[in-house]
């Protein structure tokens, strides 16, 4: 007989609160060199598992980021954003040492916004300008991880997840002073 015993709960939905680090490269305004970005990412995700005993669920992942940008190298001075990712999650319903592996696949649709510094001479600008910009963000996101449900705390799991993605950020045309960019 065991003092702590765990068992699977066949839930209709799950909710997750996640946080971590996001990093990558960003090439603003079609430049040849990229700026390294890093951010603390905050996520909320929920999944619906409509078919009992089938280890597949569908849901949404909603994330928020405020990036650290190196303003000395490029025109971007500030970049924040959110992303909504419809995703599919699948898991192996067998545990090894109480760990349950899972994988996620999703497609991000979101937006980022920020400030850009347009230096003298670029695009015919005669004085340095600062403007707000908006970026549409799309791309594939994949993740894998493990979930551990402590047997002594009902309805709670600890999750360790690693995700990777390739995102395209496009800016619509906007006006800076009398210049259309």
How many strands appear in the DSSP assignment? Answer: 9
Q: What's the gyration radius in Å?
A: 21 Å
In spatial order, strands of the major sheet run 1-2-3-4-5-6-7
Instruction: Give the structural class.
Output: mainly beta
Overall pLDDT: 77
Count of DSSP-assigned helices: 0
User: So what's the overall shape?
Assistant: elongated
Provide structural commentary:
Helix content is 0%, strand content 63%. The protein starts with 12 loop residues before the first strand and ends with a strand. The chain contains no helices and nine strands. It has 181 residues and is mostly beta strands. It has strands spanning 13-26, 35-48, 56-68, 76-91, 99-118, 129-148, 158-170, 175-176, 179-180. It is elongated and about 65 Å long. The protein has a seven-stranded antiparallel beta sheet with strand order 1-2-3-4-5-6-7, with no helix packed on it. Mean pLDDT is 77; it is low at 1-8.
List keywords for this structure.
single chain; 181 residues; mainly beta; elongated; disordered N terminus
Give the topology.
Elements: E1 13-26, E2 35-48, E3 56-68, E4 76-91, E5 99-118, E6 129-148, E7 158-170, E8 175-176, E9 179-180
Antiparallel strand pairs: 1-2, 2-3, 3-4, 4-5, 5-6, 6-7, 8-9
């Amino acid at each position: 007989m065991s003092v702590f015993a765990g068992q699977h709960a066949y839930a209709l939905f799950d909710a997750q609160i996640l946080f971590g680090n996001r990093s990558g490269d960003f090439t603003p305004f079609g430049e040849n060199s990229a700026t390294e970005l890093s951010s603390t990412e905050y996520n909320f995700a929920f999944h619906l598992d409509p078919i009992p005993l089938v280890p597949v669920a569908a849901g949404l992942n909603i994330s928020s980021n405020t990036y650290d940008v190196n303003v000395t190298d490029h025109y971007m001075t500030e970049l924040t954003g959110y992303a909504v990712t419809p995703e599919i999650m699948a898991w192996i319903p067998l545990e090894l040492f109480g760990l349950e592996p899972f994988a996620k696949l999703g497609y991000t649709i979101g937006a980022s916004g920020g400030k850009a510094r347009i230096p003298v001479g670029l695009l015919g600008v005669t004085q340095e300008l600062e403007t707000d910009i908006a970026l549409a963000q799309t791309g594939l996101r994949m993740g894998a991880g493990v979930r551990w449900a402590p047997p002594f705390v009902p309805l709670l799991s600890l999750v360790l997840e690693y995700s990777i993605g390739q995102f395209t950020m496009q800016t619509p045309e906007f006006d800076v002073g009398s210049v259309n960019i």
